[in-house]
Design a protein that fits this description.
Strand content: 25-35%
Structural class: alpha+beta
Number of domains: 1
Radius of gyration: 12 Å
Largest sheet: 4 strands, antiparallel
Number of strands: 4
CATH architecture: 2-Layer Sandwich
């Protein structure tokens, strides 16, 4: 299991398009990918759950990934978030 904290740094936060990209990346892996605040973690493969987080710019979220391809899944999700969901600023 890999667990880290990550900050949402894109201008619009975890809005619909960014959430859809996160779901798209997370579903490429068999690993269980969870994200959230504090003890409340949600399934990062669920767009509705991601939107319910209400994670705006500057939100610090906990990312937990576990499974056979956890390292690759963690790297892909972290890269997506750190690249501002590939959105222009």
């Amino acid at each position: 299991m890999i667990e880290t904290e990550i900050e949402i740094i894109n201008k619009l936060g975890l809005h619909a398009r960014a959430a859809a990209k996160l779901v798209s990346v997370a579903t490429q892996f068999q690993a269980k990918v969870q994200i959230g605040r504090g003890e409340r973690l949600i399934d990062a493969k669920s767009i509705m759950a991601l939107l319910m987080l209400g994670a705006g710019k500057g939100s610090v979220l906990r990312l937990r990934v576990e499974g056979s391809d956890a390292e690759a899944a963690h790297a892909a999700v972290t890269t997506l978030i750190n690249n501002r969901f590939d959105e222009a600023e």
